Amino acid sequence: GDNAELHNHNDVGSWTLYLDGEEVAGDPGGEIYTARTFSKDRYVSDVLNSFGHPVPRVGGELQLVGAESAAEIVRKEFTDARDAFVIDLSSAYPATRGKKGALVRAAVFDRENESVMIADRLRVENPIAFESAVISYNATCPFVPKATGGAWHLEEKTVENPGRRSPHRFAVVFDEPVTQADVTWNFKAGEKGEQK
After folding, report:
1. Total Cβ atoms within 10 A of residue 145
2. Nearest CA to 32 among 17, 56, 20, 48?
3. Of 77, 96, 93, whose CA–CA distance to 85 is shortest?
4. How far apart are CA 192 and CA 75, in angstroms?
5. Which residues pair with 192 in a beta bridge?
6. What parts of the chain have a pLDDT lower than 50?
7. Do the beta carbons of residue 7 and residue 48 sit within 8 Å?
């Protein structure tokens, strides 16, 4: 998809994980419609812009609006044992647009091990701020994050959604600007998330 679809959210690369019929983490859905929802200020809403979705924030910026902000499929593999794909998200952010392969996301659903892995890889020439997020209605992060490329911390914020449940945003945030960063979120049925 891209960020110019009907009733668009800026959510290129977003995902949702359900376990036994319950949403563990992912895309929180929409907001209660107001006049602002369909105005020039639509993306003031953190539920409609990319802050409230399980996607990175790059160079301190959220995803750009428009059809040019689109995921490009790099690789895919679907078998009885596992599903895996890699997508290029570079065009969705000002700092990486036009730099193919600068921001790549991989996802693996391993049926045999009942696990899900989401991984973001950033490669840029000049240091920029970088963070990768998971969105969940759980009070604690259901994924185990791991990261390389620099010192980082796990940040939690509530994504305000007036009139509806407000999800939590758990983000691996690098303490200093980076040129290379790898963030992996791992989920395994029956295990609780913790920082690694």
Report:
1. 22
2. 48
3. 77
4. 30
5. none
6. none
7. no
In tens, the pLDDT along 150-163 reads 999 999 999 999 99
**Do 14 and 27 contact (CB within 8 A), yes or no?**
yes
pTM, whole model, 2 decimals?
A: 0.94
DSSP secondary structure code for residue 190 in this structure:
T
Closest CA to 95 of 121, 126, 66: 126
The dihedrals phi and psi of 61, each to the nearest 5 degrees, come to: -110, 150
112: which residues sit within 8 A by CB, 6+ positions away? Answer: 81, 82
**What's at 162, amino acid-wise?**
P
Strand order in the sheet with 82-88: 72-78, 82-88, 103-110, 115-128, 178-188, 144-148
Lookup: tokens for 174: 């690098």
pLDDT computed for residue 1 by the predictor = 83
Q: Which amino acid is at 116?
A: V
CA 193, CA 196: separation in Å to the nearest integer?
9
Token duo for residue 89: 């998200």
Secondary structure class of 155 (helix, strand, coil): strand
DSSP state of 36: G
In the block, residue with structure tokens 């160079």: 59
